[in-house]
Amino acid sequence: MPAIVLVGAQWGDEGKGKATDLIGGHLDYVVKFNGGNNAGHTVVIGDETYALHLLPSGILTPGVTPVVGNGVVIDLGVLFDELEALDARGVDVSSLVISANAHLIPSYNRVLDKVTERFLGKRKIGTTGRGIGPTYADKMARVGLRVQDLFDEKILRQKVEGALDQKNQLLVKVYNRRAVSVDEVVDELMSYADRLRPMVTDTGLLLAKALDAGETVLLEAGQATLLDVDHGTYPFVTSSNATSGGACTGSAIPPTRIDSVITVMKAYTTRVGEGPFPTELHGEEGDRLRKAGGEFGTTTGRPRRCGWLDTVIGRYAVRVNGTTDFVLTKLDVLTGYDPVPVCVGYEIDGVRHDEMPLTQTEFHHAVPIFEYLEGWHEDITEARTLSDLPAAARRYVETVEQMCGAPISAVGVGPGRDQIVAVRDLIR
Ligand code: IMP
Questions:
Q1: Is the CB of 79 under 6 A from ligand 1?
Q2: Cβ atoms of residues 412 and 330 within 8 Å
Q3: Which of 51, 56, 90, 244 is the most buried (most CB within 10 A)?
Q4: Which residues of 130-148 are buried (b: 16+ CB within 10 A; e: fewer)?
Q5: 13 CB less than 6 Å from ligand 1?
Q6: Boundary-marking domain end, from 244, 262, 280
């Protein structure tokens, strides 16, 4: 049975939670492999809406083991808040397992995330301010704290001391903030150790055994292709690998065991934070799409920047991730737009580009070239098969599929769990 990777095609918030939910019944494990509580999944089940920031959305599916992989950064306060909130609503959270190698977000990195952004001024990234970037920087600089360090207080203390030698210089001398004491960091982290201990395991080994036993594993990305630190619109990206390659390094499942890559793409485009966005709509046009799509951040509540679908990005996502299936979400939001513009290429300094340009400067200068597809006015929220869709909506789906170069296997037509047009099985 397969290992399936689930990634976002654009700048995040494509509706990955819904895609997970759609195949949840077939899954044995759902693994979060990158990011931290900067992610935001909204899952609607019946009348209940669940907004998850850190936990894999599989936690809502009975019978699924949710796994926090080694590639994740964990804010322990947020972890336990989310677990308690779900528990209070009757969700069984007892099966959660966490990698001993995942990194922890200490309080000083939350402070540093916010003050660095303030100091960047006009050059700010627009981060979620949750300490994600500084924690991944610490991981690479080899001064990070890991889950397993909580089980050896002496080692934890040594590591915190080492980190604070540098961090306090920064906090006090550069950012004019108060110094943080070793005790306060150690005490805060150690206060979670006993509760965390039973959840911690060698998740790589657990998943390898699960695949050997024929179980189905979903590797679910936080953020998305263009927020990937290597393949995204750097520096306006998150600090981890959100593309399918990250699924391997962030979980210890090797590339040879991955069977399919589901890529979730919104029928239009949104982005939170700063950075280039060629098809962005400004003013009233942007407001209309934002309102129609309810485009406000799950994690931060920030209004999302909105624009038309960009198939240059769609093609890029297929190439970088090895997409086997697209799930196209929120098609219902485009109802009433006629014609519907779709970006097919860019004009950059007088030259046409059909692929993502080589440099950041060129991408900043990209002017979208649109094709105008016929729109539809009928309510499509009750459609469950392609033939239920009006002809123009069907053509939109087929045209996007051809332009991006991978099959669209499901189409979202509303926020509810069952509001989906199934084209072909996602699990084969
Ligand atoms: P960070 O991940 O908090 O460091 O933020 C870096 C960039 O990624 C910012 O532009 C954020 O708005 C963006 N970002 C991080 N997580 C998400 C997400 O789940 N959806 C959309 N954008 C995100």
A1: no
A2: yes
A3: 56
A4: bbbbbbbebbeeebbbbbe
A5: yes
A6: 262
Q: How many domains does the chain have?
A: 3
- Residues 404 and 394 occupy one common structural domain: yes
The rounded Å distance from CA 272 to ligand 1 centre is 7
Q: Using the 8-state DSSP alphabet, how is residue 240 labeled? A: S
Tell me the mean pLDDT per 10 residues along the chain, length 428.
93 86 86 92 77 86 94 97 94 96 97 92 90 97 97 98 96 95 98 98 98 96 97 97 98 97 98 95 97 87 94 98 98 98 98 97 98 98 98 98 98 91 90
The secondary structure of residue 170, as a DSSP letter, is: I
Is 164 in the same domain as 306? no
Residue 348: predicted pLDDT: 98
CA pair distance 180, 170, nearest whole angstrom: 11
Q: Is the CB of 34 under 6 A from ligand 1?
A: no
Considering the domain boundaries, does residue 428 fall inside one?
Answer: no
Give nearest CA residue, ligand 1 atom 20. Answer: 12
Task: Give the CA angle between residues 43, 47, 51 to the nearest 5°.
Answer: 30
Are residue 276 and residue 180 in the same domain, yes or no?
no
Looking at the CA of residue 275, tell me the nearest atom of ligand 1. Answer: 10
Q: Kindly give the distance from the C-alpha atom of residue 238 to the centroid of ligand 1, in angstroms, as a whole number.
A: 6
Q: How far is the C-alpha of 134 from the C-alpha of 105, rounded, in Å?
A: 9
Alpha-carbon distances, residue 180 vs 104, 141, 362 (angstroms): 17, 20, 42
Question: What does the alpha-carbon distance between residue 170 and residue 159 come to, in Å, rounded to a whole number?
Answer: 17
Catalytic residue among 21, 41, 75, 113: 41
Asked whether residue 40 falls in the same domain as residue 148, the answer is no
Indicate whether 204 and 243 sit together in one domain: yes
Domain with residue 410: its CATH number is 3.90.170.10
Catalytic (active site) residue 53? no
Ligand 1 atom 10, closest CA: 273
- Residue at which a domain ends, from 212, 238, 262: 262
**What's 140's DSSP letter?**
H
In a domain, 246, yes or no: yes
Cβ of 270 closer than 6 Å to ligand 1, yes or no, is: no
End-to-end CA distance of the chain: 9
Mark whether 336 and 368 lie in a shared domain.
yes
Indicate which atom in ligand 1 lies nearest the CA of residue 222.
19
Ligand 1 centroid to 237 CA: how many Å?
A: 7
Among 223, 239, 300, residue to substitute to test ligand 1 (most atoms within 8 Å of Cβ)? 223
Both 77 and 7 in a single domain? Answer: yes
